Structure formats: C-alpha cells, structure tokens
C-alpha cells in the first residue's frame, strides 16, 4: 500500500489534545495517531503546545480560544489573525502533501482552487442557513465533502461533491464499561447552548425526580450564550438535584458517563453527529435523544436508548422512567462494532487511496 503524505488542517482554536471541551480536536488527534500508526506521513496544523505524532505545523503558541475570558474585546481580531496565518501557511505548503484533510469548515472553500493537493472536507457542523448554502453551492466541486452522518449530508446542496458517510470513532478501550449505574443520575454533557437543550434536560429531571448533573462550557463565544445560561439554567442550579460541575476534562467526563443512568441529548437543531452519544454507549450508558439530525442513526431505539419525537417532553420523561429496560452491555457492543477509531481511520484511508489513484485534482 502506498504511503501518503497527509495534512490535517484546522484552525488552532485549542491545543490537541484539548484539555477540556474539544470534540473536533479529539477526532483530529485520533486521525493523526491512526494515520501515523499505519506508516503515513502526517502533518497537523496546530498550536505549538499540541502533542501529536508526525509533524506539527505550529500556527500559534497556544489555543486562540483558550484565552477568551481574558481579552474578549480583542478575541475576534486574534481569531482572524491566526486563521489567516493558517490559511497562508497551507497555501505555501500545499505541494508538500498528497492529501489535505480540512477540518476548518467552509472558510477554506474559496482557496481550494490554488491548493496543489486533493482536498477532503470533514464538516463538523450543520449548515442549513441560506448563507451557508450559498457558499457550499458556489464551491460545490472544490474538493470532496465527507459527511459524518446521513442527516448532515441531507443539509448540503444537491450538487456538492459528497462521498460516502464516515462516522466518527473513539478509542473504545479508553472508556471503561459499567454494567450498572452507580447513581440514580441523569447527565447532560456538552456545550451549554439553547440548541443543545439544557433547559429541557432540567425539566425532565425535575418531573422524573432524578438528579441531573450538567457538565460543559457556557457558550460565551456565541451571541446570547451568557444570557441563556443566566436566565434558563443558573436559576435552577441548587447543588442537590440540579448540579452544574462546569467544564470537565477527559478523565472527569468518563467518570460522569460511567456512573449515570442515562445521557440526555434533547437537541433542538439538526445535530450533525454528537460525539458524546458514542462515548456514553462505550461506557454502557444509554442515550435518550430527540429525533433531530443524527441521533436516530447513532442510537437504536429501545436497544441502546430511546429516540423521542422532536420537542416531545412527555416522551422524553416516559423514556427516563423505563431506562432500566435497556441492557447496558448492548450499548457497549454497539459502540465497539460501529464507532471505533480504528474503523474511522480505515474508512478515511480507503477513501483517500481510492481518490488519490485518480489523476484529476478535485
């Protein structure tokens, strides 16, 4: 098998591995390690304090979003500066690679034409807004688009050059299986944003009598994030039944997942994937989610959790009350069979090899 020169491109928002929140950074880390393990030459655009195999193309001294609370008034300028530096370095170095694997989203699309390698885009969000669709439509053929779920693929314009879906994966053995929950506890784990449905998780917990642990960063980077936390979450936190533990690291996250009876995933947007769902399953923890985007692809209803109609609070409450019917060993097995990092890496390499054999550059 030919050995490829692969560049993993992203903006240096956080170091890799991220110390706290950073699902995209986790995927990039797993890909870098997986490609390197299989003998390919890997170059990752990252922060100087990142720790990865292969070459690290150092764009910033540390994560440009990790100092957000220190200087919020100049943060937009800092982001633009370092993102521009990353794009400039990619253009300069593009002939060094066979494959450029873009994780920076739509902002790279206009410059693909000047890059001298095949470009693959793994999109980590949902792009239903008309402005997103305009840029994807205009640059539909600028590289290969690799959807991370069928739900995400449906949100892209029809002429976009999509490949088959490649699901995210995780290091399954990093997550210890727990056959029994340690507490009668529900868990919300993720960014504290309205579209993630934290307020719904609180209502479910209160109406079922379960304790709810909320873990994740307040979404201060987006408009309205602070206000949402102050008005719809903070007033309910009592430290007894509704507990907020803040942003957690990887070790703390695993402990929370293992001890919980269920993970609540009441999203209000077309979720592109939802990495925390497969992390929960790896621990044996079932997931209760709204049918909004990818959850119905990740969770098998009544086997690894419950899929509730979007916005149906009563259905989510009923699901919590029958959560004991889910076999936690089935959750673990599903994660092992469908969502390992090995499977994800192999699927990307298969795709890269197939497209790299073609002479034309897309």
Topology:
Blueprint: E1 5-9, H1 23-37, E2 41-47, E3 55-60, H2 75-93, E4 99-102, E5 118-122, H3 130-138, E6 144-146, H4 150-154, E7 185-189, H5 198-208, E8 211-215, H6 225-233, E9 242-246, H7 250-259, E10 262-265, H8 275-283, E11 287-290, H9 295-298, E12 305-308, H10 313-321, H11 328-338, H12 341-356
Parallel strand pairs: 1-2, 1-4, 2-3, 4-5, 5-6, 7-8, 7-10, 8-9, 10-11, 11-12
Helix pairs in contact: 1-12, 5-10, 8-11
Please describe what this structure looks like.
With 362 residues, this protein is an alpha/beta fold. It has two domains: 5-169 and 340-356, Glycogen Phosphorylase B (Rossmann fold, 3-Layer(aba) Sandwich); 172-338, Rossmann fold (3-Layer(aba) Sandwich). Helices cover 35% and strands 16% of the residues. The strands form two sheets. It has a six-stranded parallel beta sheet, sandwiched between helices. A six-stranded parallel beta sheet has the order 9-8-7-10-11-12, with helices on both faces. The longest helix is centred in the N-terminal third of the chain and has 19 residues, at 75-93. The mean pLDDT is 92.
> What's the architecture of the largest domain in CATH terms?
3-Layer(aba) Sandwich
Identify the CATH class of the largest domain. Alpha Beta
Beta strands, count = 12
* Rg from alpha-carbon coordinates: 20 Å
Keywords:
Rossmann fold; 2 domains; six-stranded parallel β-sheet; 12 strands
